[in-house]
Amino acid sequence: MEVIITPDPVTGAAVVGDAVESLLARKPSAVIGLATGASPSPVYEEWARRHAGGRITFREARGFLLDEYIGLPPGHPQSYRAVIEREVIARLDFRPGAVVGPDGCTADVERACRAYEGEIAAAGGIDLQLLGVGADGHVGFNEPSSSLASRTRVKTLTSRTRRDNSQFFAGDPAAVPRHVITQGIATILEARALVLVAWGAGKAAVVARLVEGPVTAMVPASALQLHPNVTVVIDEPAAMELQLADYYREVFAGKPSPEHARSYE
Ligand code: GLP
């Protein structure tokens, strides 16, 4: 696991920008896993800036959402589909239909989950999966106690996550759907590279648990320790509780420069 500590989210987003830029240069048809929540926003802004500047194109690329609420009416502004439409699709040049997500409106949810796994496999798997982390350690919507072998399925949100996500629902936790579809932990771990971003002191405790704590279903994001190609990009406040923060800084500062352009395939 590589831990990169940056002074602020904008600098961290540039690190992720570099990763995506080098992936797309090597593989224009890359399959990119898209996350929602507040954390990826600076990353999407950075991609949009680079795209506007002619540095990157997503014309041949494909995208898969990580998760989705169940039961929001189609087009609801807080459905993850709508969020990705606004933050990613509207600002980049993905071809129509190239970005897909789990169907949270279907009557046959189990079938939708199986179909989603099939679509990811048919696309050749995900090259780079962007991730955030919930304050309780959830990744995607895999809440604590999720099986580390889980696949795309329905989950019930904890009251804490509904409270946290109520910021997107006019502050009303009751307006946050109780059920969601999420890629499972095993699904996420099949992506060829994982990049997790977290910003701010509010994420310091969970970052320490996911990077340096034991691998446990109680902190689903700790399962990332089992993956051979993970980059955790955080700002200084989010790094506050890491025991080996100085070591991670030393590793990054001392990296031979050709290695900075690491392979994300
Ligand atoms: C949501 C998403 C997760 C995200 C988490 C953290 O619950 N399903 O994918 O990582 O929230 O959100 P934020 O980035 O807003 O802190």
What topology does this entry show?
Elements: E1 2-6, H1 9-26, E2 31-34, H2 41-52, E3 62-65, E4 67-69, H3 80-87, E5 99-100, H4 109-122, E6 128-131, E7 153-156, H5 159-165, E8 179-182, H6 185-189, E9 193-198, H7 204-212, E10 230-235, H8 245-253, H9 257-260
Parallel strand pairs: 1-10, 2-3, 2-6, 3-5, 6-9, 9-10
Antiparallel strand pairs: 4-8, 7-8
Helix pairs in contact: 1-2
2-amino-2-deoxy-6-O-phosphono-alpha-D-glucopyranose binds next to helix 5.
Write up this protein.
The structure is a single chain. This protein has 9 helices and 10 strands. The chain is an alpha/beta fold and 265 residues long. Helix 1 (9-26) crosses helix 2. It is globular. The strands form 2 sheets. A 7-stranded parallel β-sheet has the order 1-10-9-6-2-3-5. It has a 3-stranded antiparallel β-sheet with strand order 4-8-7. It has helices at residues 9-26, 41-52, 80-87, 109-122, 159-165, 185-189, 204-212, 245-253, 257-260; strands at residues 2-6, 31-34, 62-65, 67-69, 99-100, 128-131, 153-156, 179-182, 193-198, 230-235. The model has no long low-confidence stretch (mean pLDDT 95). 2-amino-2-deoxy-6-O-phosphono-alpha-D-glucopyranose (GLP) binds next to helix 5.
